Every structure is written in C-alpha cells, then in structure tokens.
C-alpha cells in the first residue's frame, strides 16, 4: 500500500516536472547591452535593426512633448535624420529597475552648424519584455538655445532671400527636406558675403 502511494507520488512529481520543463524559459536580456546595440544601429543608420529593438510602436517623449510612431511612420523621420549623418555616444549609463538612465551626446552636420558642437541629453529608457518600450528625453544639458535660435533664423532668412527655391526646408521632415536643409547649410557657409562678415568680425 505504501509502495503504491509512493509510486503514485513519484509519477505525479515527474508529470509536473515535465510540464514545468516544457514551459517557456525566462531569459532576461542584458539591458545595458541592448541600449549600446541600439545606439550602434543608430550610428550605422540601420533602420531595420533600430526598429527591431522596440516592442511595437516607437515612443519618444521630449520633456512634455510626447510622440508615438508606428514602425512605418518612424521611417520618414529616421530617413530625414540620417541625411545629416548623426553620431551618438553614451557618456553615462545606470540601470534602475526596468529603466536605464543615460547621458548621451549627439552630433551631426545640422547640430554642428546650429549648436557649434554636440549637445547632451539626459535620457530614460523603459524596457519591457526585453525590448524598448519608451525613450524619454528628460533634460538638455547646457543647451545653447540662444545660439541655436540665432543661427537658425539667420539661415532661414538668408535662404529666403537668396535661394527661395529652398524656402520651407526647415519644416520639411522628409528625406528630400533634409537634403534641402543640408544644401541650405552648405550654401550659407559658402556665401559670397561670408568673407566680408569674417573681416568685419576680425576688425571689431
């Protein structure tokens, strides 16, 4: 009788052991490695790889400004930004639960023109189910707002006067718009009056 009961217990334990063994295994992703790989894909302008790090929608929150894209919608913004050859660098990275807190630098042809060097952001990555759920830009660190605004206004007004065919480039966030933006920067940098401007600045 005891032997029969013992046999039944062993069979029951083996049965549940097989069920547990066949169930899904929980393999936690290395969150820090995931974020490093994400920014490497951004530096490589590898759209297919970038969107593979997200769950479904692409969620970017910039302070109080919230934006959510489908993966197809995000392609247009990604293509626009890629024209300027952006480069990112993670300067600080700390894991806090399911969140990663980062200090990130970004530079590109557009930023280097308007900001005269990279800008820095404090960011929070929210990771869910081993994928990026949301990216929050919580702070721009030492952002030169007055310089950015002045250089953008000078660029826009000069282009409107001298190259009206490019007018409106500042609002066109398509790949074609980015190419116009890039051309506008090149034309402005190489404008004929830039020599006299430099001479006037050196004589002051």
Question: Would you kindly provide a written description of the structure presented here, covering whatever features stand out?
Answer:
It is a single chain. The protein has 204 residues and is an alpha+beta fold. The protein has two domains: 116 residues, Nuclear Transport Factor 2, Chain: A, CATH 3.10.450; 48 residues, no CATH class. It contains eight helices and six strands; from the N terminus they run αααββαββαββααα. It has a six-stranded mixed beta sheet. A hairpin with a 2-residue loop joins strand 1 and strand 2. Helix 4 runs parallel beside helix 7. The C terminus is likely disordered.
Rg, nearest Å: 26 Å
Strand content: 15-25%
How many domains?
2
By secondary-structure content and strand pairing, the structural class works out as alpha+beta
State the CATH architecture of the largest domain: Roll
Order of helices and strands: HHHEEHEEHEEHHH
Average pLDDT, rounded to a whole number, is 86
| Physical arrangement of strands within the biggest beta sheet | 2-1-6-5-4-3
- CA distance, first residue to last residue: 107 Å
Helix count from the secondary structure assignment:
8
Tell me briefly what this model is.
The chain is an alpha+beta fold and 204 residues long. The protein is elongated and about 60 Å long. It has helices spanning 2-22, 31-43, 47-51, 71-82, 109-115, 145-162, 175-189, 194-203, and strands at 58-62, 65-69, 87-96, 99-107, 119-128, 131-141.
How do the strands and helices of this protein lay out in sequence?
Elements lengths: L1 H21 L8 H13 L3 H5 L6 E5 L2 E5 L1 H12 L4 E10 L2 E9 L1 H7 L3 E10 L2 E11 L3 H18 L12 H15 L4 H10 L1
Parallel strand pairs: 1-6
Antiparallel strand pairs: 1-2, 3-4, 4-5, 5-6
Helix pairs in contact: 4-7
